[in-house]
Amino acid sequence: xxxxxxxxxxxxxxxxxxxxxxxxxxxxxxxxxxxxxxxxxxxxxxxxxxxxxxxxxxxxxxxxxxxxxxxxxxxxxxxxxxxxxxxxxxxxxxxxxxxxxxxxxxxxxxxxxxxxxxxxxxxxxxxxxxxxxxxxxxxxxxxxxxxxxxxxxxxxxxxxxxxxxxxxxxxxxxxxxxxxxxxxxxxxxxxxxxxxxxxxxxxxxxxxxxxxxxxxxxxxxxxxxxxxxxxxxxxxxxxxxxxxxxxxxxxxxxxxxxxxxxxxx
Length: 265
Ligand SMILES: [Zn+2]
Ligand SMILES: [Zn+2]
What we know:
Elements lengths: L11 E6 L2 E5 L11 E5 L4 E4 L9 H7 L7 E4 L17 E3 L4 H5 L13 H10 L31 E2 L5 E3 L4 E6 L8 E5 L4 E5 L16 H12 L5 E4 L7 H17 L4
Parallel strand pairs: 4-5, 5-6, 6-7, 11-12
Antiparallel strand pairs: 1-2, 2-3, 3-4, 8-9, 9-10, 10-11
Helix pairs in contact: 4-5
The structure holds zinc ion (2 copies).
The site of one zinc ion has 5 residues, from loops.
């Protein structure tokens, strides 16, 4: 592990559209490298998910903001390790009630891949992911970083959100939609006027995770049917690149017919 190089920068950003910034962690294994989104409003800014928490996220986010003194909210889509690692760096923390317990008290986690539960590793392989690296990272965030020092503190929610709630940042708003199956309290955001869906891990353009004790396939199928009916123009997923309506329908159909074929739904 001492052989790992030091990363030039831990986080990377891109701006898919005005007022929206995508933040990623390129030195985290693709399975655990989640998308984070910074959304600018007139009154508030929002960060959707906070990655693995390997390096401080807040300084990177604040450097991207035209006015770092503007209040921020942090929305956690679900409490898988790759989505809320830096949640404690934000003062206003929203999550679905079903995931609030894990947000406050996450299970212990390590960057050493050999410590992952075997059922999870099998689920990754069955889904079609490349084998894990020995560590979940392929570089260090800074000189002298000891991967064994990795801790995942979590932080209590300061509020909860459920289906139908509206997130209003001033000049930008979207509705919370409940997307269970991948995890019980997973949420996304749906902005009807632009056809924009922030779908978390319910749908993204890579192997979806559904085969294992932590997943609920019938609930997941209902979620994909719900997404399939949305007049989506663009989907910003929890992983991988954004995609449009036709690809959204293709992915939904692929998994629904797979599960039907296996007699799971
Ligand atoms: Zn994820
Ligand atoms: Zn997940």
